[in-house]
Amino acid sequence: MKTQVVMAVAFASTLAVANPVVAQDRAGWPDNFTVGTASQGGTYFAYGAGWANFVAESLGVSGGAEITGGPMQNMALVHTGDLKFGLTTMGPARESMEGNSPIAPGMKMDNVCAMFPMYETPFSVTALTSSGITSISDIPDGATIGFGPAGSTSDTYFPRMMETLGVNFERRNGSWSDLGTQLQDGLIDVVAFAAGIPIPAVSQLEVQTDVNIIGMTDAEAKKVVDNFPVSEFIIPANTYQSLEKESRVVSMWNFAMANCDVPESLVYEITKLTMENNERMVSIHKAAQFSIPENYTKNKVLPWHKGAARWFNENGYTIEQSNIK
């Protein structure tokens, strides 16, 4: 899959950077780095591009974000070393590590290590108000549903969830921005989003037209939780203008990852920078309010990079040696 690179190059200097980080050991550090994100219009791209800029500015290494197909492709790119860093969701991470990735069937992508927790990805549905669709059960038989980029978390799990809930649909893939435009133009009936909130494409949509942001009933949420590696999640009412009350959905955790061969000192400094500057991270994207050290326990899939594990263990959190690679 061809990818578009969006580089945001930054160099640290005493004038440009307020609090530059000076690492004691830079042996083996690359001259530049790229973070695998996802499509434009989604949270991964906004979060990943902002985070890459923050790291580049603070550590004095040029870096930026790359548009990719999302978690599955990021796992492949980081495992092979084509990218040093990437963002992934725990479900696709597990499938990739076990050799069940549709990108490279049979390849166990086990040279990927966790760095830090990002946020939960809620699975939610958006339709135009004019469609009359106000619940999942309202989705008409044979409706065209946009599931995001091929191989994304949404595309991997949401179609299966819909089938479990008895929805019969036609599948459509594309970037979140493109699917939002198709929904607005009446070319598709529903978009099934899986992204950190607020999702840029949804926020843009509700500025331009009236939309319904659709949650799950208690019974629907329970059925999905019983069948998939997700947990229940509540989208707060103040997340979107279109929400009048909180919305019950399901969610899956996201983590930043690194190729396990990236120098320990670099991953240590990046983890330290990210975990100790949450206010700056939240200024990049509101979903980063959950990018806090306490959520390190949400990783039950990836081994920890030794550089990240060192920071957590030095700061009162416990990562056992058996979980470090």
TrEMBL record:
InterPro entries: TRAP_TAXI. Residues 1-18 form the signal peptide. The keyword Lipoprotein does not apply. Keywords: Signal. CDD domains: PBP2_TAXI_TRAP_like_2. The keyword Lyase does not apply. NCBIfam families: TRAP_TAXI (TIGR02122). This is C4-dicarboxylate ABC transporter substrate-binding protein.
